[in-house]
Amino acid sequence: MRLIKRILMGLLIVVVLLGLGVFVWLKSKVANHDQEINLQGLSQPVEVLWDDFGIPHIYAQTEEDAYFALGYVHAQERLFQMEALRRLADGRLSEVFGDMALESDKFFRSLGFRKYAEQTIAQYPKNEGYVKAASAYVNGVNAFIENGDTPVEFELLKIPKTPFSNLDLHIIQGYMGFSFADAFRTDPLMTYIQQSLGEEYTKDLVTTWATNAEKIPVTKGNEKEIALRKGAESVQNLLALGNQVLELQKAAPFPTFHGSNSWVVAGSKTKSKGVIFSNDTHIAFSQPSVFFEANLVYPNQNFYGNFIAGIPMAVIGHNDKAGWGLTMFENDDVDFYREKINPANANQVWFKDHWEDLTIRKEVIKVKGKPDVAVQYRSSRHGVLINEFDKKFVHEKSPVALWWVLTQFPDRSLKVFYDLAHATDVKQAEAAASMIHFPGLNVMYGDAKGNIAWWASAKLPKRPAHVKPYMILDGASGKDEIEGWLDFSQNPHAVNPASGFVYSANNQPEDMGTGLVAGYYVAPDRATRIKQLLNTPKNDWTTEDMHQMITEHKSAMAPTVIQSIAPIIKSTGHTELLTWDGTHDLEDIEPTIYYRFLYRMYEATFKDELGAEGFKAFINSQTMKRSLQNFIVNDTSKWWDNKDTKNIETRTQIIQSALNQAYTDLAAQLGTDKKAWHWQKVHTLEHVHPVGRQKPLNKLFNVGPLPAMAGKEVINNLDFPLDSSGYYKVSYGPALRRVIDFSKPFEGQSINPTGQSGYFMSKHYDDQARMYVEGKFRGELIRKEDVEKVKSGKQVLKPNQ
Considering the domain boundaries, does residue 671 fall inside one? Predict the structure, then answer.
């Protein structure tokens, strides 16, 4: 017995020592923020002060040294994120993740980001400041790769450490423009409805913009009127492709952009008399968080920015004189063209009056542990034949080509954001915004001189007047071709409007005299609420007021929807929703009931006509969101009847049944006590790391889940997929919240969804997560004396003599 005890004790000691050894090894990989490092590539020493939230403040003597240091510290904290993003965009995930990433690689290879990046770099103006800064950043990243510690993820997944190049910057930038998932879902969906069900069904869905919905006010000009629309032909298998793209986005190691809010209030409406700027960018959640914050200080520049992994220029930021933010414009920058193949030559398609050769590009995808996979991509004049490389479409005789604004012009995004970071007045900012051609961005601007502005920035195509929106176009006739481009002056915009504020919530801009810009604009809920709050006589707005507004979770539309069906609700005896004001507090039960009811109503109304793939595409589309307010009061719509039954169902019957079913569902899910159906039980936020998708590694790498206030299309937009589960796991929302009063730009405030560090053993991996869900803020420090007060570390990067 003693011997057994000794053996067990010995084993226990070994396990403890091994565990301790692993812990010590893991802790040793936390970045050391207190050290001096000699590096090849610097011209002079650079001081990096780390504040109490792990944000680097870089003090350099030259701009190139500042960007070199940014590259070094960015890689020090986020190298795995940078690596995963460049592999995702370049279609090289299978090299490290195996064939589970093959479909993703096939898809992103089809988009040709590498070829586009090569074409962009070939046009580099070698001596411009942004080119030098970008190259310095890449050199800094590579200095860490060569000299720094290897991230844990690299060792777990056996990822080789390889240098970055300027090519990688533009490949990643191409992925940042991949914001057209709604085109993949909506165009095939609406074409399918039009061709298989007819106009009686199509007319009841808001495919453009409802006339009674809030539009962003513009400064109108006298430009010649044009129409921006798309045209149609039937397609069904593309519904599956659209849903596949959505799944690829969910599984990607780096999230896609979804929307955002921003508003800028003039000094005439603020207590300080300075411009107050607010921005929260809506992006799918992941871990590490999307943005890496840094403060760059060098002669004639003190800039605080939010950077994306592998991209040297901040996409959002401010200096002490001016600042900008972004929301997605949501303009329609994608068209699908149905091509006509030559029966005698499968590598030719018809255009107008002749056969044209397709171009053929061959790619080889390396797959970990498996043979290489050869993939062939064919392209017409319109773009890559998007449905050819997927096995779901082997029986398609008429391929569909993807046309995208991205490939029509060289990428100037690095220069755009470099110039915005240096802008000190509205003219400089406008010149920078005018260079954006993709993705469509609402550039929001404010400065210390009192100017406020908004520009819808994108290259906007002129489409023929006969084409219809959200449909597959005819690639053979030549009648649906793009006719040209609007000048930037014709883009929607507003500069110093009489209202005293500009705002954007991804909603439709007003007509500039060129017709409404076609797009996949979100429902007007957030825009309506923002305007309700700002368009008042109130002239003493403060940053504290903005904090409350940016974290508000009251729906402007849900109570309106409920009241429009109030008699039907009363007839069921389930009256809890009738007094709901639209708030989404943790203890509220109304949102729990409302979203369960919505799902059951949509299911009973649309699934019989659309089928499984069509319903999956529809249920979370912007078409669904935009249509709800008008559709739910439409007694005559053919959608209400279930075509699979002999009876003719009415709107009243469907709504009654859906609400009753929702209560039955919730009783089974959460118990019969309705007072216990709290929103926090079903609405949670978890930040998922790519490695954390595998249990039990989720316990180490993921952050959360945390109960979360807010919901769909409220200002604090913590959105989620609507499905049959009864649980609403947040999929996207504000990737940051920031508020700046330009009367005191050194007191800007912000919050990150999780933390600065990309390493789970760092205290800065999740030190903002709880603050974020509670609606709290922390400082964006740009004065060195303020940084010194909260300094948590000091790195000195020295030239390697």
Answer: yes
